[in-house]
Amino acid sequence: MTGDGTTAAHAGERPAVPGEPHRPGPVLSTAWHLPGAPDFYGRPDNPTYRDLERALSELEGGSTVTAFASGMAAISAVLFGTLKAGDTVVIPSDGYYATRSLAADRLAAFGVTVREAPTLGPYPLEGASLVLLETPSNPGMDVCDLAAVCADAHAAGALVAVDNTTATPLGQRPLELGADFVVASDTKALSGHGDLLLGHVSTRDDGLATRVRNWRTWAGAIPGPFEAWLALRSLATLDVRLERQATNALAVAELLVGHPGVSGVRYPGLPGDPAYPVAVKQMRRFGGVLAAVLPDAAAVERMLSASRLASAVTSFGDVRTGIDRRAQWGGDDVPDGFVRISCGIEDTADLVADLTAALADNAG
Ligand SMILES: *Cc1c(COP(=O)(O)O)cnc(C)c1O
């Protein structure tokens, strides 16, 4: 058992062969000479996917991982790979908006009953066959007690999938807390450079892994080999990136909590945050994302134009600090001045000084 930094730096590595590259390039082929296993055509499998999947499995402490073209492709694989007409699914009412849209529009059309529940519960589990959780939730940063909800869901006969995008495998291991699936957008902090879209599903159940894998093959939601390779390259620095992002997020949370122009600061790693007691119990680290409320859209605008380091971006988990005023998109039930702040890996003192200056206009 090695530390996170060591595991990340070597994740997915192939055995050393003299004369072969230390880091092999992406395998871009769609066709292989036959006969031969396991590769014959590009859609079912690819050596670069396998390297990435092995790396993610190592980071998650052991699981069967299937890589997907995006986080939504991964979520779709679990929804469409497990649900059938007549089933009931419970999804977060305060989670990622595209999941809610997909469920409300497509799952309902295929005869699945969709129930929404807030991350803090209560969960309407009776008769449910699948519960999708998202913790910490995006964008509200609420945290649910995974072990407790998994136990209740299993007692009710439901499978549990956890969207682990915000935490990443180094921040939280839902499979160890009882979840049947992890789903994630690796577009965010996991790859961390704002230059690729990718997702994955993990499970420790062979039957469930086969269903997800079959969905990928049939629906064709496969990652590009180059993106898989870029993500694998990025994974090596996940531990050091997360460490700085979390340090920055805590410092920014402390700055904002004491600021007269800011309310509603949420960061699970902030002692005093309502999520803190559950977060310390189940999270291995708290990540780089926090939420806060400024008085209005104009105040957010002023902060963004005064900041030299933070830019307006709607993704998160990047090495550069980004701020998203969520109400502009219309999908979340949040006030006009609500911002999701994603801390990058800038020096903590520089970031705090920059945001302090950028917020000076908003005081009182
Ligand atoms: C971004 C995100 C997704 C969707 O991921 P894509 O890679 O954009 O498809 C799903 N869940 C959460 C929590 C996200 O933040």
From TrEMBL:
Pfam families: Cys_Met_Meta_PP. Keywords: Pyridoxal phosphate. PANTHER family: CYSTATHIONINE GAMMA-LYASE-RELATED, TRANS-SULFURATION ENZYME FAMILY MEMBER. InterPro entries: Cys/Met-Metab_PyrdxlP-dep_enz (IPR000277), PyrdxlP-dep_Trfase (IPR015424), PyrdxlP-dep_Trfase_major (IPR015421), PyrdxlP-dep_Trfase_small (IPR015422). Belongs to the trans-sulfuration enzymes family. This is Cystathionine gamma-lyase. The keyword Translocase does not apply. Coiled coil: none annotated. Transmembrane segments: none annotated. It comes from Cryptosporangium japonicum. The keyword Ion transport does not apply. Residues 1-29 are annotated as: Disordered. Its cofactor is pyridoxal 5'-phosphate. SUPFAM superfamilies: PLP-dependent transferases.
